[in-house]
Amino acid sequence: MSVMTQTRTGTGASSPGQKLLTPTYEGDFVIGEHLLLECGRTLVTPTLHYAVYGRLNAARDNAVLVCHALSGSALVGSWWPEIFAPGAVLSLEHDFVICINMLGSCYGSTGPGSVNPETGKIYGPDFPLISVGDNVRAQARLLDSLGIRKLRLVLGGSIGGMQALDWAILNPDRVQRALVIGVAPVAAMGLALNHLQRQAIQHDPEWAGGRYLPQRPPRRGLALARQIAMISYKSAPLLDERFGRNPNRSGEDPWSLNEHGGGLIGGRFDIAGYLDYQGERFIDRFDANSYLAILRTMDTWDPMRGYNSPEEAFGRIRARLSFIGIGSDWLFPPEDVRRFAATIRSAGVQADYREMTSSHGHDAFLAEQAELVRLLQ
Amino acid sequence: MSVMTQTRTGTGASSPGQKLLTPTYEGDFVIGEHLLLECGRTLVTPTLHYAVYGRLNAARDNAVLVCHALSGSALVGSWWPEIFAPGAVLSLEHDFVICINMLGSCYGSTGPGSVNPETGKIYGPDFPLISVGDNVRAQARLLDSLGIRKLRLVLGGSIGGMQALDWAILNPDRVQRALVIGVAPVAAMGLALNHLQRQAIQHDPEWAGGRYLPQRPPRRGLALARQIAMISYKSAPLLDERFGRNPNRSGEDPWSLNEHGGGLIGGRFDIAGYLDYQGERFIDRFDANSYLAILRTMDTWDPMRGYNSPEEAFGRIRARLSFIGIGSDWLFPPEDVRRFAATIRSAGVQADYREMTSSHGHDAFLAEQAELVRLLQ
Lengths: 377, 377
Description:
The structure is a homodimer. By secondary structure, chain A is α/β, with parallel strands linked by helices. Chain A contains twelve helices and twelve strands. The longest helix of chain A has 15 residues, at 188-202.
C-alpha cells in the first residue's frame, strides 16, 4: 500500500506538518532456535525486526500489537501516525505499542535477502513459504521475550488484518480485541492481480530465477508489479477525479508521434505518469524476492482451509473482533469483508462489521486515517 | 475481448452447436490513394480487409456496418453469431452486413506488420497513430466502392462502439441508427490498464523497440498484456463464481514448495491457470505491435476533445443513438456510459440508454449475446 500524493513528492502516509513519531526502541530479536513452518520447513534462528512506542506498564496489560501491510515496516509511527493522535485509537501515554516486521520482508526481519545460517548463502528463491500463522507464532516468541502475555488489542489493515485475526485464532487466551481492516481471504480477482504481479517480476531478465545480484535487481519487473498493485489499491472514481484523461503533468502529448513519426507509443496520460512515478519510487525501497514472498503469504491465507465449519475454524476465538470494510475497495470488496465477518460470527464469536466511507479504495486505511479513527471510536 | 469457457478449450464466441456463419464474400479493398490521418501523416494505399453477409438489395438501403473490438476480425458471423439469430438484431435475409478489419490490426487490414509501400519495409514501430475517425474515413471509402451511401444501422461494442459513434458524428447524413455498446471515452482506470499492458509488451526483451523478427515476437509480454486485459473484461463476482480460491484444475498445489524447498513461487490457483491459458491462446493469434497500435487508437479517442460544448461536438448527429451499459463492467462502468449518453442527449441528439444485466463484465456483449439481443429488441 502507499499513499497517493497530488504532488508526487510525498513521503508516505504522513500528512504535511504531521510530526513523525519516534519509537521508544527499535531493534532485532533473534529466535534462538528453529522455527517450524507450516510448509514443513524450518527457519534457523530467524530475526524479527521490531519497534515499540510508549512504555509497558507494571501490570503488563497495556500492550497493543500493530501488524503492517505488504510493503510496510515496523515503524508504525511513520506510516500510521494519525492512529496515535490524541483521542484516536492508540495512546503513547497509556499504550505500549509493538510493531514487528513480517518474515519475508526486506525491512529487517529474516527474508529472501538474508543469509541462511545453514548454508552461509543468501536464501534467494530458496526462501520457504511463510504463512500468516508462521508470522504470528514468531511474533508470539518475541512478545514472550518482552514478558508480554496478553494483548489489549491487535490490529492491522490488509495482510496486517490477516495477522490480527490469526492472532485471535492461534492465541485465544492472549488477545482481548482485534481489528481486522480491509481484508478477507484473497478472492479470485485478488489472486489474479497477484498472479499478474508475480509474472511482471519473473519476466524481468534480471530476476534470474530469483538469484539476481543485489546491485542488479529486476527493477522494471518490480516497478510494473507495483503499478499493477497501485491500481488495485485505488478506486476508479478517485483516479478519475485526480487524473481523468489529462495529459501527464510533466508536459507530454498523448496524441504525439515519436521522432520517426511512429505512433505505437506516445506521450503519456497523467495516470500513466503517476503510475510510472510510483513504480520508480518503489524499486528504491523494496526487494523483488521479498515482494514475491509476501504475495504468497497473502495468497495462501485461508483460515477456513481444512475445516468443515466456521465453528471448527473460529470457535476457539475469545477476542472481541471488529471487521472494517472500505466502501470503494475492489481488491478486498466490502461485501467480502462483511460476509467473512458474518461467517465468523456464525461460529459464536463476537464480531461486528463497520464500513469506511471513502473514495480511496483499499488504500483508505492509510490514506484516510482520520476517517478510520472516527469509525473505530 | 474474448469469451471465457469453462473447459478452456472453447473456440471463441460460438456456443456449442452454434452454426458459424459463412460470409457471402471476404476480401480486400485497397484505397487507391493516400489516406490523410488525423496525426498529420498519411497511409499510402492502405488495405481494408472485410467480410459481408447477406445481399445488398436493389434500393441499396439494407446495409448494416458492424465494427469489431480490439482483437476482433472482419468475421462478425464467427464472433457475434447470436446477433444473426432469427428475430435477433440482424437478418441474413433482409440485411447486407459489412464488417471491416480495423487499421492497425493483424487480421488483414494494413497494420504495423504490413509493408510500407514507400520504403519497402515493414512499418513496425513506425506505424502511425490511427484514430477511430481515421478508421471511419477509410471505411467510408470502402462503402463508397460498394455503392452504399446510407447505413440502416452501425453498431459495435468497446472500440467497435467508438467507431459506431464516430460514424454518426463524421457522416451524419449516412447513418440512420447507431448502437454504442459498453463504451465511453476511456477513463483514468482504463488508461491505467492500457499503460500496464503496454509496459508488459515493452519490457519483453524480444520486443526490441518494436523491430522484432516475425519468428521471435515478444510472446511473454503479449501474453501478460492479454492477462491484464482479461481481468478488466470480467467482473470480480464472475471470477469468484468460476474460480474462487480453487487450486488450478490441472492439479497444482498453491501451498507447495519448489523442488529445492523454496517458496517464492508455488502451484497456481485456478484463476492463474485460466489467465495463463488465455495468454497462451492469444499469442498464437495476435501481434504485439498491432495490440499496441489499437490500444492507442482506443486511448486517444475523445470526441469532445477540442470542442467547447456537447452541442459543438455532437450537434450535427442525425442518427438515432442507443447506448448500452453493462451492469458489471468495470473497464467502461455503466455510469460512465450513461453519463456519456446524457451528454450527447444534451446536444439535442436522440440518444437513449439501456443497461445489460450481466455478471460477465465488459465481455458481456460477447459472452451473453442472447441477453444483449433481448435488450436491443
